[in-house]
Amino acid sequence: MFVATKRKLAASEVRYVYKGMTVEGSYISARVMLRQARRVTPNRAIEAHFYRNYAVLYEKNAWFRKLQRAVQAQDPQAFKKAIRKCMAWLHELMGKIKNAFLYHDDHLFLWLTTFFGWESIVLLGLMNRYYYKSERIIFDEVLSLPLFPRDYRKLLGIVFRFTPAGRDTVYKGARTLYRELRRLARARGVVLTDRKLRV
Q1: Quick one: which of 23, 48, 147, 191 has the most CB atoms within 10 Å?
Q2: Percentage of the chain surpassing pLDDT 90?
Q3: Which pTM value belongs to this model?
Q4: Going by CATH, does the domain composed of 2-72 fall within 3.30.460.10?
């Protein structure tokens, strides 16, 4: 349970026990909460649900209307910046996948490719300016978005290993997915450039 307050305070967590049930409460400044609702982070597709779906126990001065306006007031450039950060992270992650594959670190390789699949879902939510309602149905949600990579269902099946595949196939699938994500990012004005590092 979150409690938005007028007081300027650092967010604090409290726990109570009521009739044998634990009740957790987080106190946060209303101003801070509105500022966070306006923010576009690389994890926006997951975080935004928090600001859009809730049960109101008490409201004063139509505060939740302010919250809804804040959620809808994102700057398009903020989305581009978040996509750029996401793509830089995926570039780094692809490098780790490559190394794990080349050095036959199979446990790390399989974990990283699964994580890569998850991060692709987060990125596509951002590109589509969509927030996921539930992790339980997230695969159905991402596949219903208007914008996603070619053969995405197949590639997700490979990197998450829903479809039995050898390590070479998983590696190839991760590389193909990465190329497709770069193509979609380029169409949104986000370009990763490889530059030689001189030491």
Answers
A1: 48
A2: 48
A3: 0.82
A4: yes
Residue 124 DSSP SS3:
helix
CATH homologous superfamily for 76-187? Nucleotidyltransferases  domain 2 (1.20.120.330)
b/e map 40-50, b = 16+ CB within 10 Å: bbbebbbbbee
Q: In sequence order, what are the residues at sequence separation of 6 or more whose Cβ sits closer than 8 angstroms to the Cβ of residue 30?
A: 4, 5, 6, 63
Domain boundaries, the chain: 2-72, 76-187
CB atoms within 10 A of CB 185: 20
pLDDT digits (tens, 9 = 90+) for 75-105: 888 999 999 999 999 999 999 999 999 999 9
Mean pLDDT of 28-44: 86
